[in-house]
Amino acid sequence: MDPRSTVVLEIDGDSRIRVEGVDEAVDSPEDLDAVLDRMLEGRLPEDCEVEIRGDTKADHGVSVAVLQHLRNRGFGGVALLATGDTSGAWAKVER
Domain 6-83 falls in which CATH fold? Predict the structure, then answer.
């Protein structure tokens, strides 16, 4: 992996996490750590950017938990992007 490469994590509409270019699913923080460690090949987390692409239908808690986990591991360059139909994402909630 190039030190300036971006790791892309995808969270689908069913809240399943996949790492772009990796066949295995990520079912736990430990799974994610193992995949990231292999991809980093000894580099430090701050040498890598991470893009989380979360489907708007996914449980938002999954995206937040992944984001928090990455930041706790030392990944500073983390972007969170919404995918899927975003037309209703800003709808007001009736109170």
Answer: Nucleotidyltransferase; domain 5 (3.30.420)
Spans of all domains in the chain: 6-83
- Name which of 48, 54, 63 is nearest 83 in CA terms: 54
For the chain, how big is the Rg over CA atoms in Å? 14
Per-residue confidence at 3, pLDDT binned at 50, 70, 90?
A: very low
CA torsion 80→86→89→91, rounded to 10°? 150
Q: Which residues pair with 17 in a beta bridge?
A: 11, 26
Nearest alpha carbon to residue 50 among 13, 90, 11, 12? 11
**Degrees (nearest 5) of the Cα angle 45, 70, 51?**
85
pTM score of the predicted model: 0.83
Tokens found for residue 21: 């270019």
